[in-house]
Design brief:
The protein is an all-alpha fold and about 350 residues long. About 60% of the residues lie in helices and about 0% in strands.
Protein backbone atom coordinates (compact mmCIF):
# COMPACT_ATOMS: atom_id res chain seq x y z
CA UNK A 1 0.00 0.00 0.00
CA UNK A 2 1.55 3.15 -1.15
CA UNK A 3 1.14 6.36 0.96
CA UNK A 4 1.30 9.45 -1.20
CA UNK A 5 1.45 13.03 0.00
CA UNK A 6 0.27 15.95 -2.13
CA UNK A 7 2.83 18.70 -1.98
CA UNK A 8 2.66 22.00 -3.65
CA UNK A 9 5.95 23.24 -4.82
CA UNK A 10 6.42 26.97 -4.93
CA UNK A 11 6.93 28.49 -8.26
CA UNK A 12 10.52 29.61 -8.37
CA UNK A 13 12.02 31.91 -10.82
CA UNK A 14 11.12 35.08 -12.57
CA UNK A 15 9.36 38.01 -11.01
CA UNK A 16 6.76 35.78 -9.40
CA UNK A 17 9.33 34.06 -7.22
CA UNK A 18 10.74 37.31 -6.04
CA UNK A 19 7.31 38.62 -5.11
CA UNK A 20 6.15 35.53 -3.19
CA UNK A 21 5.42 36.29 0.46
CA UNK A 22 7.33 34.33 3.11
CA UNK A 23 5.31 33.02 6.07
CA UNK A 24 6.33 34.11 9.56
CA UNK A 25 6.05 32.18 12.80
CA UNK A 26 2.53 33.50 13.49
CA UNK A 27 1.21 32.51 10.15
CA UNK A 28 1.00 36.06 8.90
CA UNK A 29 2.80 37.15 5.82
CA UNK A 30 5.30 39.95 5.82
CA UNK A 31 4.45 42.58 3.24
CA UNK A 32 6.83 43.23 0.49
CA UNK A 33 9.37 45.99 1.22
CA UNK A 34 8.63 47.47 -2.15
CA UNK A 35 5.03 48.08 -1.11
CA UNK A 36 5.86 49.64 2.31
CA UNK A 37 5.26 53.31 2.91
CA UNK A 38 8.25 55.55 3.33
CA UNK A 39 9.75 54.95 6.77
CA UNK A 40 12.42 53.02 8.50
CA UNK A 41 10.14 50.73 10.51
CA UNK A 42 7.27 50.52 8.04
CA UNK A 43 4.65 51.91 10.47
CA UNK A 44 2.62 54.53 8.62
CA UNK A 45 5.80 56.14 7.40
CA UNK A 46 6.05 58.04 10.68
CA UNK A 47 9.79 58.64 10.52
CA UNK A 48 9.49 59.96 7.04
CA UNK A 49 6.78 62.37 8.02
CA UNK A 50 8.71 63.40 11.14
CA UNK A 51 11.74 64.20 9.05
CA UNK A 52 9.59 66.14 6.62
CA UNK A 53 7.74 67.99 9.43
CA UNK A 54 11.03 68.77 11.14
CA UNK A 55 12.34 70.19 7.91
CA UNK A 56 9.17 72.30 7.55
CA UNK A 57 9.46 73.54 11.13
CA UNK A 58 13.05 74.57 10.56
CA UNK A 59 11.89 76.43 7.47
CA UNK A 60 9.13 78.17 9.48
CA UNK A 61 6.36 76.36 7.58
CA UNK A 62 3.59 74.04 8.71
CA UNK A 63 2.83 70.57 7.36
CA UNK A 64 1.00 72.00 4.34
CA UNK A 65 3.94 74.16 3.35
CA UNK A 66 2.33 77.41 4.52
CA UNK A 67 4.43 80.06 6.22
CA UNK A 68 3.89 79.99 10.00
CA UNK A 69 4.09 83.03 12.26
CA UNK A 70 6.69 82.64 14.94
CA UNK A 71 5.30 83.60 18.37
CA UNK A 72 7.70 84.46 21.19
CA UNK A 73 6.11 85.00 24.59
CA UNK A 74 7.07 88.19 26.45
CA UNK A 75 8.36 89.98 23.34
CA UNK A 76 6.22 92.74 21.82
CA UNK A 77 6.25 93.53 18.16
CA UNK A 78 7.00 97.01 16.89
CA UNK A 79 3.35 97.61 16.09
CA UNK A 80 2.25 96.68 19.64
CA UNK A 81 4.86 98.99 21.13
CA UNK A 82 3.70 101.90 18.99
CA UNK A 83 0.06 101.34 19.98
CA UNK A 84 0.92 101.16 23.67
CA UNK A 85 3.01 104.31 23.65
CA UNK A 86 0.33 106.21 21.74
CA UNK A 87 -2.31 105.18 24.30
CA UNK A 88 0.06 106.12 27.14
CA UNK A 89 0.60 109.59 25.69
CA UNK A 90 -3.17 110.10 25.32
CA UNK A 91 -3.82 109.07 28.94
CA UNK A 92 -1.03 111.31 30.21
CA UNK A 93 -2.39 114.23 28.21
CA UNK A 94 -5.87 113.76 29.67
CA UNK A 95 -4.79 113.27 33.31
CA UNK A 96 -1.65 115.36 33.69
CA UNK A 97 -2.40 118.01 31.07
CA UNK A 98 -4.72 120.18 33.24
CA UNK A 99 -2.27 120.04 36.13
CA UNK A 100 0.66 121.13 33.97
CA UNK A 101 -1.46 123.93 32.51
CA UNK A 102 -2.31 125.21 36.01
CA UNK A 103 1.35 125.10 36.95
CA UNK A 104 2.28 127.03 33.82
CA UNK A 105 -0.42 129.64 34.49
CA UNK A 106 0.71 130.12 38.10
CA UNK A 107 4.26 130.94 36.93
CA UNK A 108 3.28 133.48 34.27
CA UNK A 109 3.96 137.13 34.98
CA UNK A 110 1.54 140.03 34.71
CA UNK A 111 2.93 140.98 31.29
CA UNK A 112 1.83 137.69 29.67
CA UNK A 113 -1.61 137.45 28.14
CA UNK A 114 -3.28 134.24 29.35
CA UNK A 115 -6.53 134.94 27.48
CA UNK A 116 -5.07 134.99 23.99
CA UNK A 117 -6.31 132.54 21.39
CA UNK A 118 -2.87 130.90 21.19
CA UNK A 119 -1.41 130.99 24.72
CA UNK A 120 2.09 129.64 25.24
CA UNK A 121 2.53 126.58 27.42
CA UNK A 122 5.98 127.57 28.71
CA UNK A 123 6.02 130.95 30.53
CA UNK A 124 8.18 133.53 28.77
CA UNK A 125 8.74 135.42 32.04
CA UNK A 126 8.47 132.82 34.86
CA UNK A 127 7.98 134.28 38.33
CA UNK A 128 6.82 133.23 41.80
CA UNK A 129 5.17 136.57 42.46
CA UNK A 130 1.70 135.00 42.19
CA UNK A 131 2.45 132.70 45.13
CA UNK A 132 3.60 135.64 47.24
CA UNK A 133 0.43 137.55 46.40
CA UNK A 134 -1.70 134.59 47.50
CA UNK A 135 0.12 134.46 50.85
CA UNK A 136 -0.43 138.20 51.28
CA UNK A 137 -4.12 138.11 50.33
CA UNK A 138 -5.28 135.29 52.64
CA UNK A 139 -3.79 133.63 55.75
CA UNK A 140 -2.71 130.67 53.66
CA UNK A 141 -0.27 129.30 56.23
CA UNK A 142 -2.97 129.21 58.89
CA UNK A 143 -5.30 127.43 56.49
CA UNK A 144 -2.57 124.93 55.69
CA UNK A 145 -2.05 124.30 59.39
CA UNK A 146 -5.79 123.72 59.90
CA UNK A 147 -5.91 121.27 57.01
CA UNK A 148 -2.84 119.42 58.27
CA UNK A 149 -4.41 119.07 61.73
CA UNK A 150 -7.63 117.64 60.31
CA UNK A 151 -5.70 115.31 57.98
CA UNK A 152 -3.43 114.11 60.80
CA UNK A 153 -6.43 113.24 63.00
CA UNK A 154 -8.10 111.34 60.16
CA UNK A 155 -4.93 109.47 59.21
CA UNK A 156 -4.24 108.47 62.82
CA UNK A 157 -7.85 107.42 63.40
CA UNK A 158 -8.06 105.31 60.26
CA UNK A 159 -4.73 103.58 60.84
CA UNK A 160 -5.63 102.67 64.44
CA UNK A 161 -9.36 101.95 64.26
CA UNK A 162 -9.47 100.45 60.77
CA UNK A 163 -6.58 98.15 61.69
CA UNK A 164 -8.27 97.00 64.90
CA UNK A 165 -11.62 96.51 63.19
CA UNK A 166 -10.11 94.67 60.23
CA UNK A 167 -8.13 92.38 62.54
CA UNK A 168 -11.21 91.59 64.64
CA UNK A 169 -13.26 90.76 61.55
CA UNK A 170 -10.60 88.64 59.88
CA UNK A 171 -8.70 86.85 62.68
CA UNK A 172 -11.02 86.64 65.71
CA UNK A 173 -14.06 84.44 66.21
CA UNK A 174 -17.05 86.09 67.87
CA UNK A 175 -20.82 86.25 67.54
CA UNK A 176 -22.42 88.41 64.85
CA UNK A 177 -19.08 88.83 63.07
CA UNK A 178 -20.63 88.24 59.66
CA UNK A 179 -23.50 90.61 60.43
CA UNK A 180 -21.08 93.41 61.32
CA UNK A 181 -19.10 92.73 58.15
CA UNK A 182 -22.33 93.01 56.17
CA UNK A 183 -23.05 96.39 57.78
CA UNK A 184 -19.65 97.68 56.69
CA UNK A 185 -20.38 96.50 53.16
CA UNK A 186 -23.82 98.12 53.23
CA UNK A 187 -22.39 101.52 54.18
CA UNK A 188 -20.44 101.60 50.93
CA UNK A 189 -23.72 101.79 49.02
CA UNK A 190 -24.84 104.98 50.79
CA UNK A 191 -23.50 108.26 49.36
CA UNK A 192 -21.91 110.67 51.80
CA UNK A 193 -24.58 113.30 51.16
CA UNK A 194 -27.29 110.95 52.51
CA UNK A 195 -25.89 111.11 56.04
CA UNK A 196 -24.37 114.57 56.10
CA UNK A 197 -27.33 116.17 57.93
CA UNK A 198 -27.34 113.53 60.67
CA UNK A 199 -23.58 113.96 61.03
CA UNK A 200 -23.94 117.71 61.43
CA UNK A 201 -26.66 117.30 64.08
CA UNK A 202 -24.45 114.84 65.98
CA UNK A 203 -21.42 117.11 65.82
CA UNK A 204 -23.51 120.09 66.94
CA UNK A 205 -24.98 118.17 69.89
CA UNK A 206 -21.43 117.25 70.95
CA UNK A 207 -20.49 120.94 70.97
CA UNK A 208 -17.96 120.51 68.17
CA UNK A 209 -19.55 122.84 65.61
CA UNK A 210 -17.10 125.42 64.22
CA UNK A 211 -14.29 123.24 65.52
CA UNK A 212 -11.56 121.38 63.64
CA UNK A 213 -12.16 118.26 65.73
CA UNK A 214 -15.75 118.26 64.53
CA UNK A 215 -14.48 118.42 60.96
CA UNK A 216 -12.17 115.45 61.50
CA UNK A 217 -14.52 113.29 63.59
CA UNK A 218 -16.68 111.69 60.82
CA UNK A 219 -13.62 110.78 58.76
CA UNK A 220 -11.64 109.13 61.57
CA UNK A 221 -12.73 105.69 60.36
CA UNK A 222 -13.96 104.80 56.88
CA UNK A 223 -15.77 101.61 55.94
CA UNK A 224 -13.60 101.16 52.85
CA UNK A 225 -10.42 101.26 54.95
CA UNK A 226 -11.85 98.65 57.33
CA UNK A 227 -12.56 96.34 54.39
CA UNK A 228 -9.06 96.89 53.01
CA UNK A 229 -7.53 95.86 56.34
CA UNK A 230 -9.94 92.93 56.60
CA UNK A 231 -8.81 91.64 53.22
CA UNK A 232 -5.14 92.15 54.08
CA UNK A 233 -5.39 90.25 57.38
CA UNK A 234 -7.37 87.48 55.72
CA UNK A 235 -4.43 86.76 53.37
CA UNK A 236 -2.23 85.69 56.29
CA UNK A 237 -2.19 81.87 56.59
CA UNK A 238 -4.23 80.45 59.46
CA UNK A 239 -1.38 78.14 60.43
CA UNK A 240 0.70 81.10 61.63
CA UNK A 241 -2.02 82.17 64.08
CA UNK A 242 -2.52 78.61 65.24
CA UNK A 243 1.18 78.23 65.94
CA UNK A 244 1.17 81.50 67.90
CA UNK A 245 -1.82 80.34 69.96
CA UNK A 246 0.00 77.09 70.72
CA UNK A 247 2.93 79.17 71.98
CA UNK A 248 0.61 81.08 74.32
CA UNK A 249 0.24 84.37 72.37
CA UNK A 250 -2.91 86.39 72.96
CA UNK A 251 -4.80 88.45 70.38
CA UNK A 252 -2.83 91.66 70.86
CA UNK A 253 0.48 89.83 70.65
CA UNK A 254 -0.58 88.14 67.42
CA UNK A 255 -1.62 91.52 66.05
CA UNK A 256 1.62 93.25 67.01
CA UNK A 257 4.22 90.61 66.19
CA UNK A 258 2.60 88.61 63.38
CA UNK A 259 -0.13 90.51 61.56
CA UNK A 260 1.09 94.13 61.52
CA UNK A 261 4.48 93.39 59.88
CA UNK A 262 2.63 91.60 57.08
CA UNK A 263 0.23 94.44 56.22
CA UNK A 264 2.51 97.49 56.20
CA UNK A 265 1.78 98.11 52.53
CA UNK A 266 -1.98 98.22 53.11
CA UNK A 267 -1.50 100.58 56.06
CA UNK A 268 0.42 102.92 53.74
CA UNK A 269 -2.44 102.78 51.23
CA UNK A 270 -4.92 103.69 53.98
CA UNK A 271 -2.72 106.56 55.17
CA UNK A 272 -2.51 108.05 51.67
CA UNK A 273 -6.23 107.67 50.99
CA UNK A 274 -7.15 109.16 54.37
CA UNK A 275 -4.84 112.13 53.93
CA UNK A 276 -6.07 112.91 50.41
CA UNK A 277 -9.71 112.57 51.47
CA UNK A 278 -9.31 114.90 54.46
CA UNK A 279 -7.12 117.41 52.61
CA UNK A 280 -9.38 117.73 49.56
CA UNK A 281 -12.71 117.69 51.42
CA UNK A 282 -14.69 120.85 50.76
CA UNK A 283 -18.38 120.29 51.50
CA UNK A 284 -18.13 119.06 55.10
CA UNK A 285 -15.74 121.80 56.36
CA UNK A 286 -17.89 124.38 54.60
CA UNK A 287 -20.95 123.21 56.59
CA UNK A 288 -19.27 122.84 59.99
CA UNK A 289 -16.94 125.86 60.07
CA UNK A 290 -18.06 129.47 60.30
CA UNK A 291 -15.11 131.41 61.74
CA UNK A 292 -12.60 132.58 59.09
CA UNK A 293 -9.63 131.64 61.27
CA UNK A 294 -10.81 128.00 61.48
CA UNK A 295 -11.22 127.43 57.75
CA UNK A 296 -9.30 124.69 56.01
CA UNK A 297 -7.27 125.38 52.89
CA UNK A 298 -9.84 124.14 50.39
CA UNK A 299 -12.49 126.44 51.85
CA UNK A 300 -10.13 129.37 52.42
CA UNK A 301 -8.95 129.33 48.80
CA UNK A 302 -12.46 130.31 47.74
CA UNK A 303 -11.66 133.83 48.89
CA UNK A 304 -9.30 134.04 45.92
CA UNK A 305 -12.22 133.58 43.58
CA UNK A 306 -13.83 136.74 44.92
CA UNK A 307 -10.70 138.82 45.55
CA UNK A 308 -8.93 137.98 42.30
CA UNK A 309 -11.90 137.03 40.15
CA UNK A 310 -10.27 138.41 36.99
CA UNK A 311 -6.75 137.09 37.64
CA UNK A 312 -6.56 133.38 37.03
CA UNK A 313 -2.87 133.39 37.89
CA UNK A 314 -3.70 133.75 41.60
CA UNK A 315 -6.24 130.94 41.52
CA UNK A 316 -3.74 128.69 39.73
CA UNK A 317 -1.10 129.51 42.35
CA UNK A 318 -3.52 128.64 45.15
CA UNK A 319 -4.31 125.33 43.46
CA UNK A 320 -0.61 124.49 43.32
CA UNK A 321 -0.21 125.38 47.00
CA UNK A 322 -2.99 122.90 47.86
CA UNK A 323 -1.37 120.22 45.72
CA UNK A 324 2.15 120.38 47.18
CA UNK A 325 1.42 118.50 50.49
CA UNK A 326 -0.32 115.68 48.60
CA UNK A 327 2.68 115.29 46.31
CA UNK A 328 5.06 115.20 49.29
CA UNK A 329 3.03 112.57 51.16
CA UNK A 330 2.77 110.36 48.11
CA UNK A 331 6.48 110.71 47.34
CA UNK A 332 7.36 109.61 50.86
CA UNK A 333 4.98 106.62 50.95
CA UNK A 334 4.94 105.53 47.32
CA UNK A 335 7.20 102.53 47.96
CA UNK A 336 4.81 101.18 50.59
CA UNK A 337 1.80 102.22 48.52
CA UNK A 338 2.71 100.05 45.52
CA UNK A 339 3.71 97.24 47.84
CA UNK A 340 0.26 97.34 49.41
CA UNK A 341 -1.49 97.45 46.05
CA UNK A 342 0.46 94.47 44.68
CA UNK A 343 0.53 92.28 47.76
CA UNK A 344 -2.22 93.23 50.20
CA UNK A 345 -0.68 90.81 52.71
CA UNK A 346 1.51 87.74 52.64
CA UNK A 347 0.50 84.79 50.50
CA UNK A 348 0.44 81.27 51.84
Amino acid sequence: MTNTTNTTEPVVGGAAGAAAPAPDVTGATEPNRASRPNGRDGRDGRHGRDRRDGHDRRDGRDGDGRKRRRVVWGVMSTREKVVRYVLLVVVLFITIGPFLWQLSTSLKGAGEDIYTANPSFIPTEPTIENYLKVAAAIPVWRYIGNSLLVAAIDVFGNIVFATLAGFALARLQWRFRKAVLGLFLATLVLPGEATIISQFVTVKDLGLADNLVGVALPGMIAALNVLLMFNAFRQIPEEIDQAAVMDGANAMQRLRYISLPAVQGTIAVIAIFSFIGAWDDFLWPLIVLQSPENLTLTVGLQYLQGTFATDQRMIAAGTMIAFIPIAVIFAVLQRFFFKGVEEGGVKG
